[in-house]
Amino acid sequence: MLETVGDGSGGDGSVSRRILVVDDEDAIRDVVRTSLEMVAGWQVDVAANGAEAVTLCGADPPDAVLLDVMMPTMDGPTTFARLQEDPRTRSVPVIMLTAKVQRAERRRYEGLGVAGVLAKPFDPLTLADHVAGLLGWRT
User: Fold this and answer.
1) Residues near 76 by beta carbon (within 8 Å), at least 6 away in sequence
2) Given 3-state DSSP classes, what are the helix, strand and coil percentages for the chain, each rounded to the nearest 5?
3) pTM for this one?
4) Where, per the database record, does this protein carry 4-aspartylphosphate (predicted)?
């Protein structure tokens, strides 16, 4: 699941992580990718929709998935359910990205069993810290 180069450390003892970002908006995928690569040094793969995410995760599970809630065809909760059905991807932690941050919405997503919920818009400079915090990772 973890893809590393050499000894698997980022030179400072930190572990290299691989994240899949799933969002139907090109701009969001680009900002998240740049933020996580530049700030945390993580490898970031991207998917434009839920079906692509399910295929990519099944072929080579990442360390975590950042998953947009509202996407056409297959939304975030449906994508998460599909990932939970597959033994290869069931243990991959998923963080939902959503513009809907009302308490009821947040509770609904957390009730699905996701690792956490992050609100859009987000600060690209602190995104990696928030992701790491939700996943219990060091940055």
Assistant:
1) 22, 50, 67, 68, 69, 70, 96, 97, 98, 109
2) 40, 20, 45
3) 0.87
4) 68
> Among the CATH numbers 3.40.50.970, 1.10.274.10, 3.30.300.130, 3.40.50.2300, which is that of 18-132?
3.40.50.2300
Query: In degrees rounded to 5, what are phi and psi of residue 64?
Result: -165, 160
User: What is the side-by-side strand order in the sheet with 94-98?
Assistant: 43-47, 18-22, 64-68, 94-98, 116-119
pLDDT digits (tens, 9 = 90+) for 11-64: 444 568 999 999 999 999 999 999 999 999 999 999 999 999 999 999 999 999
Say which amino acid occupies 119: A
In this structure, what token pair is assigned to residue 49?
């929709």
CA separation for the pair 21, 71 (Å, rounded): 13
Query: How many of the other CB atoms lie within 10 Å of CB of 80?
Result: 24
